Amino acid sequence: MKPRRPSPALAIACLALFVALGGTVLAATKIDGRTIRVKSLPGNRLAVGSLPGNRLQPGTIPGSRLAPAR
Prior knowledge:
Layout: H1 8-30
């Protein structure tokens, strides 16, 4: 008995899956910290405590602007 051919719906679904995954991979490889422009991510969109201190480069925020440790 021969295996059945895949239906056109299955072929289109697989194609859509590969296109979606390819777009995610492309975005992940093309967007990094250097491609983000200044003021494109406003600080008022950051939630309090969402950025840990170890993610900041030394000297980027003066000590007077930091909240006291909890």
